[in-house]
Design a protein that fits this description.
- The protein has a single domain, classed as TIM Barrel, CATH 3.20.20.30.
- It is globular, with a radius of gyration of 18 Å.
- 46% of the residues lie in helices and 16% in strands.
- The protein has an eight-stranded parallel β-barrel with strand order 1-2-3-4-5-6-7-8, surrounded by six helices.
- Helix 5 packs parallel to helix 6 and helix 8 runs antiparallel to helix 9 (231-237).
- By secondary structure, the protein is an alpha/beta fold.
């Protein structure tokens, strides 16, 4: 299992220089990838624009969206933006897409929330067609375009992943929850007779350091997932706060067949990626 790190671009108040410094530190190892998340009606950086900037200062790490809220985007524009990031990064983009769960993002975009599943299915078909036809450029590293991942927990989402994408991305939670999602993804893949197996990605959140720092991380988690009501407290409780918790979490995900695990910060400070790198090296995880 490869270990990546999320950028702090989804944390309110993050400074642009921190994102660039963070990307340079990730490139130095032991991380295999850099990830971004997506919100519209929120104080955050747009994910693909962020990865375009990061592509210019990295050469090794994969650049992954986990996820972009696909239905908020025009299909042709998304295809061209993704192709641009993939070209700038020399084929390192992994494009994770999902429908998203927050009504306010759809309201801000002026798009009917109820249409999101249909729109994502149509989008997946359109993306492959636009890339394979080379209709919009730039020239892709691979004719079929970047690898596509699909997130979500619905039966429709797993079927969509198996038919149109290259893999599945799980949104977090304890290893047993991930194992259920990964099993459903692999079953959906087999059910339609696709050869091989899907890529399986996942993400989690971390905050390492003093009690004050971890409490700041918990506040961010509660605020970010406040739309979920009382469940936000349970989601916050999944945040990893010690190297020992990270070790156990990684072990559970690896045993359940995770290929790539992205650890996202909840505190926008460069010390967080330094501490995470130190913890991973101490656990024998080194990508360089």
């Amino acid at each position: 299992m490869r270990i990546g790190v999320g950028l702090p671009s989804g944390i309110a108040g993050t400074h642009s220089q921190l994102i660039l410094d963070w990307a340079k530190r990730a490139e130095a190892g032991p991380f295999s990838s850099l990830g971004v998340i997506d919100r519209l009606a929120y104080d955050s950086f747009e994910p693909l624009t962020t990865l375009a900037a990061v592509a210019a200062i990295t050469q090794r790490v994969k650049l992954a969206t986990t996820i972009v809220i696909g239905p908020l985007h025009n299909n042709a524009l998304l295809a061209k933006t993704a192709a641009t990031v993939d070209a700038l990064s020399q084929g390192r983009l992994v494009l994770g897409l999902a429908v998203g769960a927050r009504h306010e993002d759809y309201a801000a975009a002026g798009i009917d929330y109820r249409s999101r599943g249909r729109r994502l299915t149509e989008q997946l078909i359109a993306l492959r067609s636009l890339w394979e036809d080379s209709a919009i450029g730039p020239k892709l590293e691979r004719q079929r375009g970047p690898d596509l991942l699909i997130g979500g927990l619905s039966d429709q989402g797993f079927a969509r992943m198996a038919r149109y994408a290259d893999g599945y991305v799980h949104g977090g939670g304890p290893p047993r929850a991930f194992a259920r999602g990964a099993d459903k993804a692999r079953a959906a893949w087999r059910d339609i007779g696709r050869p091989g197996k899907p890529q399986i990605w996942a993400q989690a959140y971390f905050a390492l350091g003093s009690d004050a720092e971890t409490q700041a991380g918990y506040r961010y988690m509660r605020e970010y997932y406040s739309f979920a009501g009382p469940v936000a407290e349970r989601i916050a409780s999944w945040m990893l706060t010690t190297p020992q918790e990270i070790a156990g979490f990684m072990r559970g995900y690896e045993e359940a067949g995770c290929d790539d695990l992205l650890l996202f910060p909840t505190i926008p400070h460069i010390s967080q990626i330094e501490r995470l790198a130190e913890a991973l090296v101490g656990l024998g995880r080194s990508e360089r």
